[in-house]
């Protein structure tokens, strides 16, 4: 009976009430999103400033112009101009500089960053003992994608460069910088564990690819190839906290190792494939063993003879020795030789041949 006494609102008034509620909800959602965007943007700015402060506290130099916010509403974008970074490691002086660097993150994923160079990137390393300078210039749009664990530890990083050049020079050399290599479409990926139990656990997995590398070294080796392609997949075991000699010694003493799961180098018609497990000796030189496969070694030996790096009689002996380890490829009929490789006391060898020696770190 009481319901008969309460009049039912007209339909148009009910619609206005629903519209008012929906408008309020939408306005609240928009205000919340805007607030979260600015909070996340300021948080990202704070992380950049904290990192810069930490680097300066270590004695490194970092500089950039005022940070500029962009990208609202779907991404947080911070643009820094005239960025430079310098540090000293022992007798090495390293520096990176670029005209413009953009850091981007999504408001809903603030632990995932993308850093994009909007200008050429110049990186240098000066060896004060050898008085040499190595310079790498990467083309614009080089990009670094990163993802962090909630603890702040790096989980994933991928560096992509769309072309670049590496030069080297020695003080007093009147010829100036010399081309060491040119590359296109190179990428480096690192996936890191948040924590590990012991030295047998994988702390990081590294992947490196370069689809085309041009270098004068190829011609000095005697190969006919004008360019090479390489790929590397490696697993680091044990905790490595830095690249200094003390860090490397601590990693070695705790039983750390590096598994080279796959390394390939293609210099048509020659191809190399290597897998190995390495550690460090008391002088911080690599030591370990693995297997090297060489495809097209007949052609490689003949190229060395033509280039004057090997005499014909030595080449014939090398072919006979390598043939004892070889098999025929079912795909193209070329011969493939498998050799044991080892690194010990600074000497790197493949089968009975010494390839090169490694100085102490």
Automatic annotation (TrEMBL):
Keywords for the protein's UniProt record, in alphabetical order: Membrane, Transmembrane, Transmembrane helix
Transmembrane portions of the chain: 21-44
Domain of life: Bacteria
InterPro entries: DUF2125
UniProt-recorded name of the protein: DUF2125 domain-containing protein
């Amino acid at each position: 009976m009481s319901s008969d006494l309460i009049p039912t609102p007209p339909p148009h008034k009910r619609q206005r009430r629903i519209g008012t509620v929906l408008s309020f909800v939408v306005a609240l959602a928009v205000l919340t999103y805007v607030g979260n965007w600015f909070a996340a943007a300021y948080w990202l700015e704070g992380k950049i400033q904290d990192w810069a402060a930490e680097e300066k506290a270590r004695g490194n130099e970092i500089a950039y112009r005022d940070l500029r916010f962009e990208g609202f509403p779907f991404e947080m974008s911070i643009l820094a101009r005239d960025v430079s970074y310098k540090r000293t490691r022992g007798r090495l002086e390293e520096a990176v500089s670029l005209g413009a660097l953009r850091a981007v993150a999504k408001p809903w994923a603030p632990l995932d960053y993308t850093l994009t160079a909007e200008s050429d990137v110049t990186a240098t390393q000066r060896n004060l003992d050898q008085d040499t300078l190595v310079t790498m210039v990467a083309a614009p749009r080089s990009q670094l994608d990163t993802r962090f664990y909630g603890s702040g530890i790096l989980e994933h990083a991928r560096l992509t460069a769309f072309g670049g050049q590496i030069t080297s020079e020695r003080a007093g050399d009147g010829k100036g910088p010399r081309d060491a290599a040119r590359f296109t479409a190179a990428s480096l990926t690192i996936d890191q564990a948040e924590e590990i139990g012991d030295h047998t656990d994988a702390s990081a997995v590294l992947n490196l690819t370069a689809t085309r590398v041009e270098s004068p070294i190829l011609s000095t080796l005697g190969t006919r190839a004008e360019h090479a392609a390489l790929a590397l997949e490696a697993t680091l075991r044990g905790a490595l906290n830095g690249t200094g000699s003390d860090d490397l010694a601590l990693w070695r003493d705790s039983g750390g190792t590096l598994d080279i799961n796959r390394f390939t180098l293609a210099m048509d018609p020659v191809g190399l494939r290597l897998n190995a497990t390495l550690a460090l000796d008391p002088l911080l030189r690599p030591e370990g063993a693995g297997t090297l496969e060489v495809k097209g070694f007949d052609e490689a030996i003949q190229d060395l003879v033509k280039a004057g790096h090997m005499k014909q009689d030595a080449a014939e002996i090398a072919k006979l020795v390598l043939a004892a380890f070889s098999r025929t490829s079912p795909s193209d009929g070329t011969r493939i030789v498998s050799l044991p490789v080892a690194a010990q006391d600074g000497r790197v060898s493949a089968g009975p041949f010494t390839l090169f020696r490694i100085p102490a770190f």
